[in-house]
């Protein structure tokens, strides 16, 4: 289409698209996000199109690939419109069944429906799934509805309306005061009020005459994929937020820093930027308003530290991804020494939502100091692994049990790690905590960017802390001493404890070291790196002490502290464990009791998993 | 002029000074490793941390990079500062446990025992002085830090003998622990005079590649206190 020259032209275009959009149009929406792709959604998409073509239906049915709606546990996901029947875990071999029985004959196939684990009831329609009941989907609203590669879909559902509103009748100051009034705080970790940051940056931009805005898409926490799904599933939302931000702050160049490991997000983002430029919503003279804003993509090579804003700036400038001390803050002296406003993907994506619904309405969601919604990626020992967007102030218990569907296999929850390697764990006794910035910090965790890892009784908290310490130790940039050597020292101590070589005084050493790294490191990575260890010591010190003094791992995880043994009364001599042992540590003959050579045993647990007679015991 | 309180004493300093500069102007001792008056501060060794009290909250900041702010309350010798410096020195010793300069530093800061040691001893503790001198003063940038975390080290691009290196010896001269050797940069090139000659301030050179390391003498700042990192 041709470039829109004025706001009137945009209005006419949008009205046209809105009128042409039929939310109940018969179609199949298939999640084509990274999670479902990994489970085979590309084959499902192609297969469906082929099957539908071959089936010669009375009315043609379109197949649309959408962004991730969040229910990753049950992917690949298909929703059949207009009824909104939700089919889950659909594989290529199921497709002819779906086309023949459901599309042709209107039959609902129960095998593909979601079954409520508590009641055993089949749930037919997507909106009735318990997973979505307690969510409040503002940012993720269009994920699952629109085709992220088509700007028309976004505009038809009200996209770029907020930008229009701003260009027609709001001064930059009014936009900033609207964001301030909404109470929006940065969704990337520290929770700094976004409106205040914009205001500071605007002042400096006016002084210097130039500046930049940046979208931080360097999401790197293990198990976190909020930002990826927003960029993949609805890139224009974030772009619209940035255009509004550029207008409010008074800059005309922006960058999106996103990691190369997110190829689909990069592809959809680049496509969306091109479309926005072609339609006149980005670039020179946006919608004839005289405002210019150019947006470029910068790819990161996947260093966790580059999510730290000063390291991110260095990386964009082409220097080594090392943080530098603040002050000066980026709002004073950022990219190439110019004032720079950095927000993460989710923060930018909230901007059009706030302007559309009004700051008053937005501020009604959430708690006194934490407004709006937050997206969490809920992973680990949980039934409904996926992305959830919930209002601030919801209790952690509701997220885990009502949205997340509880813990698999009837196990007991032990703790929830919030905020990734910078965060801490919240033990089961604090599950009723209301999720907001202050409450989480008081318990030793942080909101972070929204990673939530659930652990159950089979998780060893020392081993869990060791995992996160391995991560930060590998991801430390190595510039400052406490982070570079301190995290290595902490990891070394944890490894020793896990190997059964813990000594009295180790816990105190970890606490002392952790406190020093926290206080004296240069950047946020180091200052938060000890958190997983400090918080597990705070709540699970008994597990540490059991490792050190009793030489036992209560969860039976730490390989240095467990042995596998055959229970002679139960062993039938079937040879299954013997054949599957990875290190030939099991001996015995057919129909004779087997035995495990503990010197050769690598404690991989394969024998126990393979044994049908529960004849193998771990101690 | 800016008013601030250091260790309970009210002091006046020029605007734009770092806390470290202000302290040294008033003869308040602060240990440093990665600081050199001729170079941009780096904030990496964390030995120069001081306690900054604002609004009833205290935090540690690296004095070499933290600017003096009006009304700031700073402690350079409080228990929390001493504890932090002691732990940082212990961590540096974890990697450089046989280096005389670092051992002396550990002693000065009260390290009694080194509870963790890296498997390999390395006198280089990544203070970055060599890299910054090469970039900021020589203007060559022949060396940089490569890799990250515990694997981080100073090297030339692709870890091969650098054609950018002019053999001036500044890196060797400025290294506080003698970890930087000529061969670190120029590989197998033959260099004369000897390393010790550079430390004496010689600048004549006669190598087969006709390098021109006459730079050192022109920059007296580099020679002053280069081996300890302390200001002259």
Task: Note the topology.
The complex is a heterodimer of chains A (619) and B (232).
Chain A: H1 7-20, E1 27-31, H2 34-38, H3 41-55, E2 62-66, E3 78-81, E4 85-87, H4 95-104, E5 114-115, E6 122-123, H5 130-133, H6 151-156, H7 161-169, H8 172-182, H9 194-208, E7 212-217, H10 226-233, H11 235-249, E8 253-259, H12 263-278, E9 294-300, H13 309-316, E10 340-344, H14 345-357, H15 359-363, E11 373-380, E12 386-391, H16 396-403, E13 413-418, E14 424-427, H17 437-442, E15 451-456, H18 461-475, H19 481-498, H20 506-520, H21 524-528, H22 531-548, E16 564-566, H23 576-580, E17 586-587, E18 595-596, H24 606-610, E19 616-618
Parallel strand pairs in A: 1-2, 7-8, 7-10, 8-9, 11-15
Antiparallel strand pairs in A: 1-3, 3-4, 5-6, 11-12, 13-14, 13-15, 16-19, 17-18
Chain B: E1 2-6, E2 9-13, H1 19-25, E3 49-54, E4 57-62, E5 73-75, H2 79-95, H3 100-108, H4 129-138, E6 144-146, E7 153-155, H5 170-174, H6 182-186, H7 195-200, H8 220-223
Parallel strand pairs in B: 1-5
Antiparallel strand pairs in B: 1-2, 3-4, 3-5, 6-7
Describe what this molecule looks like in 3D.
The complex is a heterodimer of chains A (619) and B (232). With 619 residues, chain A is of the alpha/beta class. Chain A has 5 domains: 25-81 and 85-124, 3-Layer(aba) Sandwich (Glutaredoxin); 151-362, 3-Layer(aba) Sandwich (Rossmann fold), CATH 3.40.50; 373-456, Ubiquitin-like (UB roll); 461-548, NADH-ubiquinone oxidoreductase 51kDa subunit, iron-sulphur binding domain (de novo design (two linked rop proteins), Up-down Bundle), CATH 1.20.1440.230; 563-618, Alpha-Beta Plaits. In chain A, β17 (586-587) and β18 form a beta hairpin. In chain A, α7 packs across α14. Chain B folds into 2 domains: 1-123, Ubiquitin-like (UB roll) (Roll), CATH 3.10.20; 129-223, no CATH class. Helices cover 27% and strands 13% of the residues of chain B. Chain B contains 8 helices and 7 strands, in the order ββαβββαααββαααα. The A-B interface holds A 303, 305, 320-322, 324-325, 327, 473-482, 484-489, 492-493, 509, 512-513, 516, 519-522 and B 42-46, 49, 59-62, 65-67, 80, 83-84, 87-88, 91-92, 94-95, 115-116, 118, 125-126, 128, 144-145, 147-152.
